[in-house]
Design goal:
Mean pLDDT is about 85; it is low at about 485-498. The protein has 3 domains: about 1-175, MFS general substrate transporter like domains (Growth Hormone, Chain: A); about 180-230; about 235-498, Growth Hormone, Chain: A. The chain is about 80% helix and about 0% strand. The chain has about 500 residues and is an all-alpha fold. It contains 17 helices and no strands.
């Protein structure tokens, strides 16, 4: 449920924008509200499971997720949908870490690796199914079913969990770092709100700069709180390891690029290239399938070449993939343009993901695996969260500048031009005003499409730069195999988790 929902919503964004007459800021919040609470609370969710019972917290997360899915499915406004997505994020923060923790607690060391491998395989499959299933539901039923489909899944999961999953908890007592969680939510929420709303309210608005100041201040306070906490959810001593810091910096850069890509690419295909939602979901399949089919091979690269080489080469290949995404224009043929880009990006991620998991699991002391893995998982999610907020501003400004330049040559009536400029925040969701002749409407649509592609190209080049920055982080900070250099660190990133 959690992995399908993390991908299915992106394909539904154009339908949400049309159905609610929403701006790009509104649909940003549909994605960001979920990611904010999931990323901020995922470490707390793992701690709650250890303390009160992993199955109990897992089932509670499923129940919360399902209830929020109902509200999403019947939402009558974009504000209701955003609120329900926030609650979904809370539920996901309880069930996502619980699933892997239950597996780890239910198998001995000999069988645990195979069990986790099966879990990873199913994760990849559901991540691949998400866009296709979501696209089909949006096209043939309604975007609402993308959420309501969670109800039978949740019912089955809860029955199976209570029937077949044994309860487990940590034998060592602990405390929940509520102070850290609160400061993390307020800090990240303040920054995300300020960046996203700056597009519509302007940087001078008191709500915008006020939320940015509060967000930054809370994140600074978060560091001090974690440094003094007896049971911090983010032990800062882990960052004393150069390898751990390098792994998380690599994750931050690379998954920021992936996050904004998965937000904008479906909008490009559906609203500009005029793909159906189902075709949009299928267009992304090669990327996920490459990771699924060749993850075992990429894991073998570590045994053959060490971990540092793949972590440099993989992001460089991914950067080339992003550059290829910057090439197609409006009306480009998929197999000659987007397909090669998807394959190259997928191959780059394939080379990167398994070695990244291997390097940090090899650097970590056994008693710190869970915490460090959770930190890296949260870093991947929060990277996408902040990327959508920050680079969404770049996209809107680039789009607005380009569309104004193109429309200036059409000699539109002042009232029509003003209306289009007011709707610039909708990006490619802009509709030509009524009452215009067919040729003018077509010219406006063409200008909007070209302006979106212009902004999309800029973002893809930024993503390429982020990928190269992640390769540089690996080159400078990731130790060669056998060099543990400092305190331990851990990671368990997966594309679907991002």
């Amino acid at each position: 449920m959690a992995f399908i929902d993390s991908t299915v919503v992106n394909v539904a964004l154009p339908a949400l924008q049309t159905g609610f007459h929403a701006t790009v800021v509104d649909v940003q919040w549909v994605v960001e509200s979920y990611g904010l609470f999931l990323g901020s609370l995922i470490l707390v969710g793992g701690s709650l499971g250890d303390l009160f019972g992993r199955r109990r917290i897992f089932v509670a997360g499923v129940a919360i997720f399902a209830a929020a899915s109902v509200v999403c499915g019947v939402a009558s406004s974009i504000q209701q949908l955003i609120f329900a997505r926030s609650i979904q994020g809370v539920g996901a923060a309880l069930l996502v870490p619980g699933s892997l923790a239950i597996i780890s607690a239910s198998f001995d060391e000999k069988g645990r690796g195979k069990a986790i491998g099966t879990w990873s395989g199913v994760t990849a499959i559901t991540t691949a199914i998400g866009p296709v299933l979501g696209g089909w539901l949006v096209e043939h039923a309604s975007w609402r079913w993308a959420f309501l489909i969670n109800l039978p899944l949740a019912a089955a999961v809860m029955v199976i969990s209570l029937w077949r999953v044994p309860e487990s908890r940590s034998v060592i007592g602990g405390r929940i770092d509520w102070s850290g969680a609160i400061f993390a939510i307020l800090g990240l929420g303040g920054l995300v709100y300020g960046f996203i709303e700056s597009v519509s309210l302007g940087w001078g608005n008191p709500l915008v700069f006020g939320s940015l100041i509060v967000g930054f201040g809370c994140l600074v306070a978060f560091v001090f709180v974690e440094a003094r906490a007896t049971a911090p959810m983010v032990p800062l001593t882990l960052f004393g390891s150069r390898g751990f810091s390098g792994a998380n910096l690599l994750t931050l850069f690379l998954y920021a690029a992936i996050g904004i890509f998965f937000f904008l690419f479906p909008l490009n295909l559906i609203q500009v290239q005029e793909y159906s939602p189902t075709a949009t979901g299928v267009a992304l399949l090669p990327l996920i399938l490459l990771i699924f089919l060749f993850s075992r091979w990429s894991g073998g690269l570590v045994a053959r070449y060490g971990w540092r080489g793949p972590l440099i080469i993989g992001p460089v290949i991914a950067a080339l993939g992003f550059v290829l995404f910057a090439v197609p224009s409006v009306g480009s043929y998929y197999w000659k343009t987007f397909f090669p880009a998807v394959v190259v990006l997928g191959f780059g991620m394939t080379v990167t993901v398994a070695p990244l998991t291997t390097v940090v699991m090899s650097l970590v002391d056994q008693d710190r695996v869970g915490t460090a893995s959770g930190i890296n998982n949260a870093a991947a999610r929060l990277a996408g969260l902040l990327a959508i907020a920050v680079f969404g501003i770049v996209m809107v400004n680039a789009f607005g500048s380009r569309v104004n330049h193109l429309l200036a040559h059409l000699m539109l009536p002042p009232g029509v031009l003003q209306q289009i400029q007011t709707d610039e925040i909708k990006l490619a969701g802009i509709q030509a005003p009524a009452g215009l002749d067919a040729s003018t409407r077509a010219a406006i649509k063409e200008s909007v499409g070209e302006a979106f592609v212009f902004g999309f190209r800029i973002i893809m080049l930024i993503c390429a730069g982020l990928s190269l920055a992640s390769a540089a982080a690996a080159w400078v900070m990731i130790p060669k195999e056998g060099d543990r250099s400092g305190p331990s660190a851990g990671s368990d990133p997966a594309l679907g988790q991002a």
